[in-house]
Amino acid sequence: RTSQAAALATVSGSADRQNEGSGEVQVRTLTTTNIGVTVVQTVVAGLVIGTTARGVRGGIEHSDTRTTVDVDAGAMVSAWDVRFGLTARNLRQPEFESGSGMVKMHRQLRVGAALVPRALPAGVHGPFTFAIDADLTTTPDVASGDRRTVAAGGEYWFAKGLVGGRAGVRWSTLGDSRRAFSGGVTLRLPRSVHGEGQVTKAT
After folding, report:
1. First to last CA, the chain
2. What are phi and psi of 124, to 5 degrees?
């Protein structure tokens, strides 16, 4: 279930007004419910692609809902200890009726890279991971301004792979940076059980 703020213009025109396009701008929420099926395929060694077909039901508050289909896709390339990825959401850019026009779910593209050396005793978890990813497209946000987000973070495993610590930061490259910091700890317990805790602080 996702929500997106949308700006809707309400025009109160009159015969003596020169600008018929001006008027009150209201902010309403587009809420969608998604059910998807994902298919992942290894194309060649080191290249994996995936696609998710989603049934999307949603609408603007106080307006009729509709059901449509959308598609997400992604790809990851692995070479030695480095991975590169690309994701794409809302490829069909579904639209929903607001009563005063159509509201579109904009296409979103994001690219990332990670350094992921793996060695015993941390195994598949470490000893460490460093990753950075960034939006290639701008995400409209009428509530707090358009954003294009970049995020970076790392993880390190201690005590022979029993304890993992991580930290990260994200910010927008447009307008107000809206920077946020996060940190977390994972404790690996017997029988493949993990205990986790994390905190995020926005500035």
Report:
1. 27
2. -65, -10
Cα Rg for the chain, rounded, in angstroms? 22
Task: Please give the Cα distance from 25 to 18 (Å, whole number).
Answer: 18
Phi and psi at residue 161, to the nearest 5°: 80, 15
Q: Residue 7: how many CB atoms within 10 A of its CB?
A: 14
Per-residue pLDDT of the chain (203 residues), as tens digits, is 565 555 554 444 444 545 555 555 566 778 889 999 999 999 999 999 999 999 999 888 777 888 999 999 999 999 999 999 999 999 999 998 877 778 888 999 999 999 999 876 666 667 899 999 999 999 887 667 788 999 999 999 988 888 999 999 999 999 888 899 999 999 999 988 999 999 999 98
